[in-house]
Design goal:
There is one protein chain. The protein has four helices and ten strands; from the N terminus they run H-H-E-E-E-E-E-E-E-E-E-H-E-H. Helices cover 22% and strands 31% of the residues. The relative contact order is 0.20. The chain has one domain: Phosphatidylethanolamine-binding Protein (Alpha-Beta Complex). By secondary structure, the chain is α+β, with helices and mostly antiparallel strands. It is found in: Mitochondrion. Keywords: Coiled coil, Mitochondrion, Ribonucleoprotein, Ribosomal protein, Transit peptide.
Amino acid sequence: LINLDEAKQEWLKTSGQHQIKEVADHYGVYQHLFGDAYFIPRVPLTILYDVSDECLPVYYGNIVKPSQASNKPKVSFKSDDNTLWTLILTNPDGHFTNQESEYVHWFIGNIPGNNIEKGETLVEYLQPFPPKGTGYHRHIFILYKQEKKIDFSIYKKEGNCTTLSERTFKTYDFYKQLQDVLTPAGLAFFQSDWDKSLTNFYHKTL
């Protein structure tokens, strides 16, 4: 019998990284976040949403409904203990007032090793909220490897931050400013479109 986990790990070590890059390229991930630049995702991300006692994984463009992503996912990756990382979840498709901007849905910096819980939460998790009739929105996780501890204080948002203007973000500008001290290393993304759960979300949260 074939061990699927072992087969996946072997794929990720060999051709998988370049195939993920090609899929992300197909979905416009690099163009819309990094302009003309791209990177090979060397660090595999495992991202799981808890849905009715089952785990819904994020791959590379699969569908995840807003109701399934109402709570932050569990994120894991392999790394050495003495490394630092940044994880950002951003949506380049959903900004209400500026098509060139994104909304940042989650931002954790200075993650020691792979211990997400001990990272510095700069922006709390906010679920997908694609308006009705706007189709599928890409929600993209980017993992960056840091060269050192970084002062992210200018990105810090207080509380749950449901004021969308404060969540306005541009990956291109963020990376351009910090490219000497961090390097994109991993990615995963899902697509999400409107569902009925958002009626309540818009009334009570936004």
